[in-house]
Design a protein that fits this description.
By secondary structure, the chain is mainly alpha-helical. The chain is 69% helix and 10% strand. It contains three helices and two strands. A two-stranded antiparallel sheet has the order 1-2.
Length: 125
């Protein structure tokens, strides 16, 4: 399922799960709070919870793969060297560093989402 629907009275939000990381944290907190208030949103919350767990596992495995790729393919080179080979190595090193940083950011976002859902669950009980 790629989309969930959260309803509360006349309010209705259709959320594309693949774009969930683009929603600001505060707005996401508000949506989860609204969803927890209405029993008809239980299915959407279950889907969101399962999706966040899968997202967390995926982000964790992507980070491990990126770190492994970085450790095996990173090459030391003088950053001031301007030979063609050195520039190619520097570009590859930059790509490797950027990939690891992107994966770390995705993992942090997934952890925040998972923590939000866990906190909201414990708040309800």
């Amino acid at each position: 399922m790629d989309e969930i629907e959260i309803r509360s009275g006349t309010f209705c939000a259709h959320i594309d799960l693949s774009k969930l990381h683009l929603i600001p944290q505060r707005n996401l907190e508000r949506l989860v709070k609204i969803a927890r208030a209405e029993p008809e949103n239980e299915f959407a919350l279950r889907v969101l919870d399962l999706w966040s767990q899968a997202c967390l596992e995926t982000a964790n495995s992507e980070l491990k793969a990126a770190e492994q790729d970085y450790s095996t393919n990173y090459k030391e080179v003088n950053p001031r060297s301007r030979t063609k080979a050195a520039r190619a190595i520097l570009a590859e090193n930059k790509r490797l560093r950027s990939r690891v940083q992107e994966c770390r950011v995705r993992l942090r976002q997934a952890q925040k989402l998972f923590a939000l859902l866990c906190n909201q669950t414990s708040a309800k009980e």
